[in-house]
Design goal:
Helix 3 packs across helix 11 and helix 6 crosses helix 14. This protein has helices at about 10-20, 25, 50-55, 60-65, 80-85, 95-105, 150-160, 175-185, 195-205, 225-230, 235-250, 255-265, 270-280, 290-305, 315-320, 325-330; strands spanning about 40-45, 70-75, 90-95, 110-120, 125, 140-145, 170-175, 190, 210, 220-225, 280. It has 16 helices and 11 strands. About 45% of the residues lie in helices and about 15% in strands. It is an alpha/beta fold. The strands form 3 sheets. It has a 5-stranded mixed sheet with strand order 7-6-8-5-9.
Length: about 325
Amino acid sequence: MSTSRHLPLSRRSVVAALAALPAAGFLGTRARAQAPKTISLDYAYYNPVSLLLKKKGWLEEEFAKDGTQIRWVLSAGSNKALEFLRGDAIDFGSTAGSAALVARANGAEIKSVYVYSKPEWTALVTRADTKIEKVADLKGKTVAVTRGTDPHIFLLRVLKDAGLGEKDLKVVLLQHPDGERALAASQVDAWAGLDPFMAKAEVEYGAKLFHRNVDYNTYGVLNVREALLKDSPDTVRRVLTVYEKARRYSVANRAELTKILAEDAKIAEPVAKIQLEQRTDISDPTVRQALRDTLIGAGQTLRDIGVLKAETDVNALVAGLLNPDFASKLAQL
């Protein structure tokens, strides 16, 4: 069982830090560029900070003076967030780092600018009544997965390690909550899981996480459309500053964050507690070398198995996806 690594902040130091984080302070004395009429963001159960931010209304407060409307869109998984980003339905979207990397390779004009979590949010899951105990046992079995997401990439990597591929399985493409329901109903033998649905399955019917590897879980990253980054970097700075306020508040108020996750995802608080306290690290928003290394490893595996083109320069692809500047400045406050 992995444990979260939380920022060693006292309540007093967090409150002081939050007081020092108004958007205007982060932007300095430089005049703001005109904000867009609407800013669209996703919220997702796999990004608990987004749920708190939506609930608090801090972005609405920040942009009220500009007459800017804040629009929230639910993302059911990384693939949906990326679909919304590609279609200009949202400006900021929450995804796994690996999913963003694949999208970038396929022409999505996005940049990953902020880390909302370092999770162990995916593993391979089965019911307690199956005889599945290891990856090799999946051969010929029916496995649910959401294509293009971190659980899908996790599945591909562990299959490769076991000398298997998707062709050795009966793959059923389902969104994350539907995959969990299919597992519970014995419609599939296993599922490439995602929290909070994975924790829900553990609590409600004793589902087994039969294969785990925290190092194969890529980070949770907040992506922005490159067009917005180019046309209004000021807007990106202001949004991320408020996002950082929400993250720091979340670190200091875990019980409140757990309650919000439970209410919004309609899950029991013990389930939300497993996700947040045992498998979600929200202590560091910056784009660090560890993230680069994780993405390079994932990208190389994806290239080896043909998800990325053989000629893909993975290092260059990762460098083109990541923009560390905004989060680095936030961390200095």
